[in-house]
Amino acid sequence: MMPICSRKVFVVSTFLGLVQLKQGASFVIAGANHVQRSLSPPVLFSTTYEQSAAQPQEEQDEEEQQQPIRRHKLNKKEPLVAVVGRPNVGKSALVNRICNTQSGGAIVADEPGITRDRTYRSAEFLGEKFWLVDTGGLVFDDDANTVFSKEIRQQAMIAMEESSAVIFVVDGQQGFTALDSQIADFLRKELKRIPVLVAVNKCESEKTGAISAADFWQLGLGNPYPVSALHGVGTADLLEEMFQGMIDKKSAVEGFGTKVKKLSQAKSNLKHKGPLPWEDETEYKMRKWGIGDPAQRVIDDYEAAISAFENDVQPEDINVAIIGRPNVGKSSLLNAIFGDTRAIVSDVAGTTRDSIDAMMERPAATEGGVPTIYRFVDTAGIRRKGKVDYGPEFFMVNRALRAIRRADVVLLILDATAGVTEQDRILAQKISDDGRACVIICNKWDAVVDKDSSTYDKSVKYVRSELPQVRWAPILFLSAATGQRVGKVYGLIDDALQAHRRRFPTAILNEVLRDAVLWQPPPARRSGAAAKVYYCNQVSTRPPTIVVFCNDPGLLPDNYRRYLDRKFRESLDGFEATPIRWIFRGRRERDVVRAGGKGKTMNGAPGGGGSGTSFPFPHAD
Fold first, then answer.
1. 559 pLDDT exceeds 60?
2. Dihedrals φ, ψ of 166, to 5°?
3. 3-state SS of 210-256?
4. CA 305 – CA 293 distance, rounded (Å)
5. 3-state secondary structure of 538
6. Which range scores top for mean pLDDT: 354-363, 434-443, 524-533?
7. Torsions phi, psi of 310, nearest 5?
8. Long-range CB pairs of 22-26, under 8 A, 24+ apart, other chains included
9. Helix (H) / strand (E) containing 2
10. Which of 69, 243, 246, 463 has the fewest C-beta atoms under 10 angstroms from its C-beta?
11. Among candidates 312, 413, 300, 390, which has minimal Cα distance to 76?
12. Where are the beta strands (DSSP E) in 499-612?
């Protein structure tokens, strides 16, 4: 029986042998009346992103017609709070304390200049959700010792312009400084519409903290609050006063910061024994005995106060990690996608320190639908392990590797002018090991000289041969500096995401497996033992995971497993941008006993439950 899915029928010989397909396919099938399996309309990968020499990529710059991409706007119900101050006063540590991200949050070190770009993190206090934006240390006097001071000021200004409140962090141990006075003068003059609170950090002692904070009254910004980002002392008082300031100055949405008060009042009304302010004697009696509208009104108020704490349904974010060696153009690509200076860019390697998020949104195709949210994560450049010392760079690399594990799609950035290096191969292997969908981006394509009609095909062949770990990944040549083909990134991300979540019926998979085994049986050992492949099925997605059941996984060499991976990719449309995780399982103990193989070990010790042997990162030969 032929599957219901669409198929391309090829005429083949009726006997087992080699059949040359006449439609330019790259594989052959043995047996009678076999067909190529496809669950969706065929995707001509070689002509979509890898143009032939007769149709070079230079001539295909027209953007596909699709919904326009725009910047994702934060929920108006969740205000933004900017954290500013001079360098090395504990801004990032305070952000980690409020957001409860001490592990995996902003990078903290006892040296100035760690934070350069603005980073956004979500927080919650008293049932209210809001966002904190961490900024770099402000320095107004530019000199040789202050690196990127102008760019850091620009990032901080952008954060303050879009915020509903500002937390000005100072150092309680070092005391009042002239730079603190300069920043305070700027805040007083420029930020009159939003509340500005002074947080005196490093005041761990409750006895001496108030004395240290008293020195900052001279800033003229109101009551300084002694806090400790390390121990969390005083942060609750600071946030309560910040909420009250946003309510008084109406810098946040109406009703923000009142959930706890409304719930407390609703509970009090339920237990109140006397008449409420809006009740007369009759209504009070009715509420007391639980009858009529007065009683129902109190209950409704309480239920409304409780429901205010329920989380709103948010659309799923597509996490896209931008990974690569230092100085290959990762931040430039992020800025080109975002359409603004989202990250500081320079020719100096290692400019980006922390992971930077940029949210983009594709509106829903139909009215009332859910929009698609793209979260691009720019990471620090990853150098070779031997060159990374323990310190800020160590944590920078850890954040970048963590971004790979959390990503749905990884953009592996290469330098088209430098070629593929050993570090690029290590990163490609890491992406494959973690099972992430991948798109290879060759940046600085505009800097390649002497391009002709064959340059593209030669470049694709070169990248394929140098990066066999992700040979299945599509390749896009672009220029972040000029914006050439940057718009095509979204189409590649959508295709990779769809492939990463693709699921095929078991019947289709077993027909492909049967064809592969008929054409090339598993090799036999010198002793005559040979593997017998029974059937397979897909057990999960993200990445697609296929379990193959056989008599003994140890009899299947690695080259045969790569052969199966290649045959599945050739026969099924939909695996172009994702790794396939293979698990080979042997028979269980009772099956061995039934077959008369007592005492024979298959797939480890008998009775192990058939845990299987994992081959997590196969690729084509």
1. yes
2. -130, 135
3. HHHHHHHHHHCCCCEEECCCCCCCCHHHHHHHHHHHHHHHCCCCCCC
4. 18
5. strand
6. 434-443
7. -75, 140
8. 25/570, 26/570
9. none
10. 69
11. 312
12. 533-540, 545-550, 581-585
Rounded CA gap, 351 and 378, in Å?
12
Token pair for residue 44?
């001509």
CB contact at 8 A, 146 and 182: no
Q: What is the mean pLDDT of the chain?
A: 77
Task: Give pLDDT, residue 151.
Answer: 76
Residue with tokens 């980002």: 229
The overall pTM is greater than 0.85: no
Neighbours of 251 (CB within 10 A): 18
**In sequence order, what are the residues at sequence separation of 6 or more whose Cβ sits closer than 8 angstroms to the Cβ of residue 575?**
472, 499, 502, 544, 568, 569
Q: Are strands 35-37 and 7-9 parallel, antiparallel or unpaired?
A: antiparallel
Strands 70-71, 80-84: pairing is unpaired
User: How high is the pLDDT of residue 516?
Assistant: 94
Q: Which pair of structure tokens corresponds to residue 497?
A: 């995401």
Smallest Cα–Cα separation from 500: which of 313, 371, 320? 320
Cβ atoms 411, 489 nearer than 8 A: yes
**Three-state secondary structure of 276-335:** CCCCCHHHHHHHHCCCHHHHHHHHHHHHHHHHCCCCCCCCCEEEEEEEECCCCCHHHHHH
Q: Are 603 and 552 in contact (CB under 8 A)?
A: yes
Which of 394, 401, 358 minimizes the C-alpha distance to 119? 358
Cβ contact 538:545 at 8 Å: yes
Nearest C-alpha neighbor of 354 from the set 166, 96, 125, 98: 96
According to DSSP, the β-strands at 356-362 and 70-71 are: antiparallel
Q: Which two tokens stand for residue 458?
A: 């030669």
Token pair, residue 445, equals 């394509």
d(CA 310, CA 302): 14
Measure the CA–CA gap between 504 and 580, rounded to whole angstroms.
12
The token pair that represents 224 in the structure block: 């300084």
CA-closest candidate to residue 169, choices 122, 238, 237, 244: 238
- Sorted by sequence, the CB contacts under 8 Å of residue 498 that are 6+ apart come out as 574
Q: Distance between terminal CA atoms of the chain? A: 33
Highest mean pLDDT among 21-35, 79-93, 283-297: 79-93
Token pair of 363 as six digits: 């509106």
